[in-house]
Amino acid sequence: MSDPGSEEPALVRPFLSGLIAASSAPARAYDPNGQEPAAVRSYAMTNGRSHAAIHLEFEAMLQVTTAANDPALNLNFERAAIVRLCRNEILSVAELSARLRLPIGVIRVVASDLVVDGLLEAFLPSLGVAEDVDLISRLIEGVRAL
Amino acid sequence: MLSETAPRPTATRAPIPVKIVVAGGFGVGKTTFVGALSDIAPLTTEAAMTTMSQGIDNVGEVSTKTTTTVAMDFGRVAVDSSIVMYLFGTPGQDRFGFMWNDLVKGALGAVVLVDSRRIEDSFPALDYFEHRNLPFVVAVNCFDGSLHHSPDDVREALSIAPNVPVLTTDARQRERVKETVLSLLDVALAQAKARARKG
């Protein structure tokens, strides 16, 4: 899970979280073309962490739990945005990343927190998919019928 | 778990995400391929990846550690009431092939798209998948309806192992893309059965 080189460790600079928290500047949307500020901004959202408690694959799917419907819930905006999107449909980490224009690494960490907090339920890809004759047979049937 | 007032999610059973990787050189038609089968218009996502520079992007720095943001396009296909198939195009900068690890982890298999006019562009993808225990097929994309080299020529030119299917496809045509994905699924099924027999 913590495969060195495949995560984003170089961007983890814990000192940045304090720096960003002190700033009252309004958050800017992640801009893929404006590279420099985006890197700081994105990782500030995760408080400088790049490793999530639960490893969510790109295609891991997320849906809200009943706990997420609590009207007293007060979520900050990245968390709120993820919960809002997952309320209407079950979405993957990659889809959340695309829709919210946030790098996958950020979604992974924030969504993992939401799962730990019991606000999201995660559907993970089958680990044994390569051996799963039934699943692959169902896929073949399903793709033929498309 | 869901209260009666909660908006009902779309799937009736717990979804099972399955991932297929679509690889190949820049401009070979990966996004078109994904879009031909996807239920949604292909989306773009970005991942920041840290890597050791291979000297190609060297801008004169002494440090060889770089962080690159790579973009990848993907689509989603509801295959049945619970299986959701995600098709991920590998990042366009294919020289960063080894950064695919995170993307490829857990994938069922891969389609390597080849432009028969620039077959060398598919080398990184082929090298990558040949060294992994991951089912893949090689699909020659016929852009303009014409094939510059036959699948056999491509197989020979790329030294593709006999057990890896080499076929033609047309990334713009849904039926051809379906056929290509099915040929990959057949390879995956055969390998899964072989593994099951071994116990």
Overview of this structure, please?
Chain A has 146 residues and is mostly helical. Helix content of chain A is 44%, strand content 7%. Chain A has helices at residues 15-22, 35-45, 77-88, 93-100, 104-116, 133-144; strands at residues 61-64, 91-92, 120-123. Chain A has a three-stranded antiparallel beta sheet. In chain A, helix 4 crosses helix 5 (104-116). The longest helix of chain A is centred in the last third of the chain and has 13 residues, at 104-116. The two termini of chain A are 34 Å apart. Residues 1-41 of chain A have low confidence and may be disordered. Chain B has 199 residues and is α/β, with parallel strands linked by helices. Mean pLDDT of chain B is 82; it is low at 1-11 and 52-63. Chain B is 27% helix and 29% strand. Chain B has a seven-stranded mixed beta sheet with strand order 2-3-4-1-5-6-7, with helices on both faces. Chain B has five helices and seven strands; from the N terminus they run βαβββαβαβαβα. In chain B, helix 1 packs across helix 5. At the A-B interface, helix 2, strand 1, helix 4 and helix 6 of A face strand 1, strand 2, strand 3, strand 4 and helix 2 of B.
